[in-house]
Each structure stands twice: as structure tokens, then as C-alpha cells.
Amino acid sequence: AILGEGNSFTLDPDSYAIGDIRVWQKDLAGNASEIYSNAHAITITTDISGTTTDGGSGASTVPEVSSAHGFTINTGTSWNTIYPRSQGQAVSSAGDVNGDGIDDLIVGLASQYYKWGWKTGKSYVVFGKVDGEGVDVNNLGSGGFTIIGRAGNSLSGYAVSSAGDVNGDGLDDLIIGAPKEWHTWGIKRSGTAYVVFGKTDTSSVLLKDVYNGTGGFAIKGYIYESYAGASVSAAGDINNDGLDDVIVDTNSDGIGDIIASAEYQKFAIFGKKSTSSVSLSAIANGTADDQGFVINSDNLCPPVTSSADFNGDGFIDSI
């Protein structure tokens, strides 16, 4: 149970064990904290009154987190890191990406700069660990790896999630949204989602390589300003083939002040071992039924979320 409100709250296990807890305070200057509890209540208090998140001098500092209960992830305080809507933009469980038996985290910062240009975006995989020493994403070393966007203004990392084991190699994979990417001249901001396969090394991943079929595969949007990848999620094994599937959303919130007029669509993409790209156009047109299916809606829908077997037929259902 969560007791209290405002800037202070208590996590109360009510005399039973609870799982790991991830806490993200959006108003902090680009920092995410992971807190653990399974034996007693924890109280975390932050004072963020009068602070800003637009890069001004009032940007707040991260609160202390006892090393006995977890660790702090510091994403830095440069202006392109805490650009509005990007600081700590996306934080998610990553599953066990490196296969060491401890679950990992992924943090997406969609407005970070790379040599491709502004708002290329980066995502940081932070390996799970048993000590409480803080983590700096700009100096991960052996503690994780960086995933770098493919193009300027693509906003890679706007949405991030564990994907489950999509390719069946025993390592959990990731899905990352880059909703402002585009593939065909004139069809701007059609969006891309990337499935990045799990790995045990800490070398950086370029989504440019994944787009071309190395280390994962791209899922390509096709409608002008449809923002495919604005929301992404693991789906479990929807088609019961032994490989985990993913869900990719279009038009989940319009990205910024723009809301597209196109039909709202959610795509279930089946897991696969190959790294060939997936065309959402082909799935929507019914010419790639072996790759997934589309759910159409005339109305703006909530972002996608994880799924489960709701009717007990052995197949994972979608939300």
C-alpha cells in the first residue's frame, strides 16, 4: 500500500513480502531512483518546491537514498538532458538483459544529443546489482550500456520497455520507441520502434545498426505524423509460439503539441529470430499476418501496457 500523498509517501508491505519497487520522481533534475523493500516500510521524502525542470539554476538535487534499500541513477544535469518532456522521460524494468540472474533497468532520455543531431536520444541499460553504490549513466563502465538513436530529432528513448525474450536466446530483450523518425520522403514523423536483443557485453548499441539488421530489428511506421513508437510494451507470448511478442502504439499522445488526425492504431508484433525489419503498413494492409496484427480505433486510446492470459485459454491477451 502507498500511504500519504504529496512529496512524501510510505510503502507499507502490510506484513507480507512485496516485490521490488521502482520509484521515479519526474520533477528531479534527470535522476531516477530504485528502491527495494521486502521486510519493512520505507519512507522517502523529497522537497522540490520552487525548483524547475527547464535547465534553470533552480533545478533540484536528487534526494539521498540509503544504500541498504537501493541505489540512485544519475543522468546528469546538462540542458539537453533536462529539456522539458525528456528528463527521465521513460524508466522501465528491462528484464534480465545480460543473463546474470538479476533484473536490469532502462532509462530513456529522448532529447539527448549525439553527432547525428539534437534530440537524437539515448537510452541507458543499467545492470541490476546487489550493492547500493550510485550509478552515473555517463560512466556506466561494466555496469551497463548505452543505446544511441539513429537520427537527429528522432526522440529515441521517448518510450522504453522490456520486451521479454523476443528471439528465444535466453536473454531478455528491449523495445525502444523513436516516434519522430521517418523512412519515406515526405512522410515525416511516421515513427520507429526498435527491438534490441539482450547481450552480455557493455559495448554501445547504435540504433542505426539495428535499423540495418544487426543486434535486433526495426518496426517501421508508415503514416504521416502517426508517431509509431510513442508507446511500447512487452506483450508476452500472444500467439503461443514460444517467443515473446511486443506491442507498438501510434498516436498515443501526439508527442508535444501535435496530435495527428490519422486513425489510432496499436500493433501486436510477433517475436522472431531474424533481424529483418517489420513494416506496420504491411500488417495494417493484411499482407503480413505472420508478423502480427493491428487493432484500430477511431478514438485516442491510453498508452499500451503489459498483457496476461485473462480468459485462461493458454494464450496471452492484450490490453
TrEMBL record:
Protein keywords: Cell projection, Cilium, Flagellum, Glycoprotein, Repeat, Signal
One annotated GO biological process: cell adhesion
One Pfam assignment: FG-GAP
Name the record gives this protein: Flagellar hook-length control protein FliK
Species per Swiss-Prot/TrEMBL record: Bathymodiolus thermophilus thioautotrophic gill symbiont
GO cellular component, one term: integrin complex
Cited Gene3D superfamilies: Integrin alpha, N-terminal
Keyword Oxidoreductase appears in the UniProt entry: no
PANTHER family in the cross-refs: T-CELL IMMUNOMODULATORY PROTEIN, T-CELL IMMUNOMODULATORY PROTEIN HOMOLOG
